[in-house]
Every structure is written in C-alpha cells, then in structure tokens.
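Reopening: Inositol 1,4,5-trisphosphate receptor-interacting protein still failing for me.
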Amino acid sequence: MALGLFRVCLVVVTAIINHPLLFPRENATVPENEEEIIRKMQVLEEKLHLEQLRLEEEVAQLAAEKEALERVAEEAQQQNESRSAWDLWSTLCMILFLVIEVWRQDHQDGLSPECLGGDEDELPGQDGAPLRGIILPNKATLDHFYERCIRGATADAARTREFVEGFVDDLLEALRSLCNRDRDMEVEDFIGVDSMYENWQVDKPLLCHLFVPFIPPEPYHFHPELWCSSRSVPLNRQGYGQIKVVRADEDTLGCICGKTKLGEDLLCLLHGKNNLAQPISEVEDPLCARGSPYLDTMQVMRWFQVALTKAWHRIAHKYEFDLAFGQLDTPGSLKIRFRSGKFMPFNLIPVIQCDDSDLYFVSHLPREPSGETPASSTDWLLSFAVYERHFLRMTSKALPEGACHLTCLQIASFLLSKQRRLTGPSGLGNYHLKTALLHLLLSRRSTDWKAGQLDARLRELLCFLEKSLLEKKLHHFFIGNRKVPETLGLPEAVRKAEPLNLFRPFVLQRSLYRETVDSFYEMLKNAPALISEYSLHIPSDHANLPPKAVVL
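Support: Ran it again with your exact input. Result attached.
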C-alpha cells in the first residue's frame, strides 16, 4: 500500500515537474523556427556576399584610379623633365649662337692681316681660294699703272674744281638775286663732296658734285625727322628721313594755346588773341606734298630746275659757252658746252642740313644700279658725304707720307669702271668700294698703309669686297658704327642706330646678285691683263707730274 502510494506520488511529482505551464521549455520552439532562421541566415549571407562583391569592385576601381593617377603623374614628370632638358638645350644653343655671332662680328671688325674672304663660304664650284686664286700684279706693275693711267689723267683736277666753283658761285648769286625772300627758298653757299674733293676721281670727264643747301622763307623752318627716331621703320626706309615744314609761330616748343581752350579771361603771351597757331594742314606750305606737312622731293627738284634755268638766263651773256641739263630725271645734272665741242659736266644737288650737324638730306643722288627708290616722295636720303670727307682728311694726317689708301681706291675704281663698259652696270658701285676702304682704314694700323704695301692693301680691299658679296652684307660705315671717332661729331642717334646693310638689295634681287658676283669675278679675271696692258709704256714726262694728291 505504501509502495503503491509512493508510486502514485512519484507519478504526480513527475507530472507536475513535466507540466509546461510550470516549467516552460525555452527551446520548445526551436524545431518550429529552425527553417525560418536558416532562411534568414541565407538571405543575410547573400547580402553580405553582395556587399563583399561591391566593396571588392570599389576597391578595384580605387586601385585602378590610383594606378592611372600614378601613371599620369609619372608621364607629367617625364614630360617636365624632357621639357626642362629641351629648354636647357635650346638655351645653350642660343647662347652658343650668340657667342659665335659676336665672335664673327669681332673677327670681321678686327680684320686679320691675311685676306678676309678665304674662311667664308664660297660660290659653287670654288675651292675656297680667295679671289678664285687670281694673282694680282706686283707693286712695280701697279706703280707703273698708276702713273700711266690715273695720276696723269687726273692732273688737272684742281683746275677743273677751280673753274666749276667760280661758275657755280656766279650762278647761285644770280639765283639769289631772282628770289623773293618772302616767298622763295633761300640758297646758301655750296659744299664740295665726293671723289673730286677727296682726290680719288678716276673716270673721265672729271665730275664735280656740289651740295647746295637751302632754307625756307620766313616764317617757316625745317624740322628733320630721322628714320632711327621711330621704333618701327620698314627696311626700305632705313637711311631715309622726312622734313616737316613748320611755322615759327607754331607749337613746336610746347605752347598749348592751339590745343586747348584757354577761356575768355586767359591770353597766350606768345601768340596773342588773334594770332593763334594754325594747324599745319591749314597753311599753304611751300614745296610740300599735297595734304601733307612734309617736304616733297619732286616739287623741290622742279623748283630747283626752274630756278637754275632762270639764273642761267640772267648771266648767260657773260660767258662764251652754253649750259644745258645733262639728265632730265636729275635736275642738278648740268653740262657746260664749249664752242670747241668739249664739255664739262657737274652736279648741283639741293640739300637740307640736319639740325646743326654735317648730315644732309638730299633730294636725289647719281643713280646706282642696286640703289633702291624711296617709298614716298617725302622720303629724303641721308648723306654722310661731308663726314666721309672729314674722316679721310683726319685719317690722312695720321698715315705715313705717300700712303697708298687713295691709290688702292683709285685702282679699284678704275677696274670697276672698265668692267662696266665691258659687261654693263652691276650692283657694285664706287660707294661700295669707298665704304670698304673706310672700314679697312678704321681697323688697320697707320703703318700698314705705307706706299710699299700697295699690292697687299689692294688685294685686301678686293678680298673684303668678295667676303661682303658672298655674305650679302656690307655695313654702312657711319650708321650704327660706334667705333667711329667721336671727334667727328656724328649725332648720337646715328651712332646708336641699327647697322644698315648696303647689300640688302642682293637678298631681295637674286638676278642682280648673280650678275654682280659674275661681274666682280670677271673684273678680277681681267685685272692682271688690263693693268699690264696699260702699264707697258711709262710717259716721258713722268718726272714732271705733280706730286700725289692729298685730301684737302
């Protein structure tokens, strides 16, 4: 009974213990939610996988972008390095070029004792020998040639100058007597220039070149404007200038009464109330271009030709010869015709003085084949003829007695003149020969011009011309040449200007250049035979010839 009761109690206790309401089982729903949990875990796993893929893709993109940026930076660095290297190389090349150019200029200005043309580029077919290997005559032959063909032929140069100067004095005095000082230009005394007054004239007949300065009537005056005073000037106007005609009562010194309104209670003490400066365009200026305040070369030429004609008619009865114009396009080219049939030419060139210097603006010059015409009729060529004469005179005083510099120039001029008669004119003129000689005189010692070195100096002069022709460059002696002595009084603006290349036409005109070079070498080829032919016979009155001329 007790055992049975114990069993019943044990069953009851067991039932009570196992009853869910008394001790609920926490994991009782696990079997029911297991599938849902697994499904959620799978979804979460998929999301995590997708997120991982997205992150991996973003990391890959960031890596690619980083690699691209590194590549661009590397390329930019390489470009900068190459650019820096290129800039450095360009700078070095430019510096080297400038050093070579400066050295070449110094070498050209210094002039080595040997011929200057041997180291430069030669024409096609040349072996580099200066003057194409042509051997010029020796000093004895050159001396005979000079005595026979030049010294005797120019012995009457002094008498010719004296006759022409006396006649021109009378002619200009007659011209002044016919001019109205209130309306006409006033002519000043003439100035002798060029070969006849520098004693290297060779060609016959002897030809005098005379500058005739003129000034305007009152109240006008001339205001020269050099080409180098402007910052930008075309190449064809370098060496030219313009001459502005202004009134004395104009605002040239800074008066502003003609530029602004002074008001009713203000009065200009220079011009007064009713005498204000008139604009230049409203004034009837003498010999100016139409609608321009600048002097016109064509009108000046016509005025000068008419004035000379009237002056000659005034004094023609006093002379037993006729006076005629030599060239229609050169108003001052005159020719005296004697009854015997002989004639004596000379040139009167109207010029205008540039301020207080010895520079002169010329309306025209004897034509050179390579000469360029001015771009406008208001462009006036600047002449350094007076400075050239002064320089030759100053240099001659420092040279040994009987120096050969003018003899070299005369022989070269003679050869050029004969060659022109054979093959016609070329681009090489006497002014180029003279310019080359001036450069040599400035660069060489005075002892190098002794009479005994005539053959060496003549060869050097021709070599200098050959070198200049091959380079197509012959600088003007005064313009931009700071080695010219300051004692000459050359204007500072001209000294500091850019050098002017006299052979610039050869750069633009290839046919003219070829003709000039061919003519030059033909002259060199004919020189030995020509000099020898004229040197065969020495005149019997050789001892009675006047001494060699010196620069006056």
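The longest helix spans residues 30-110. If you still see a failure, please send the error message rather than a screenshot.
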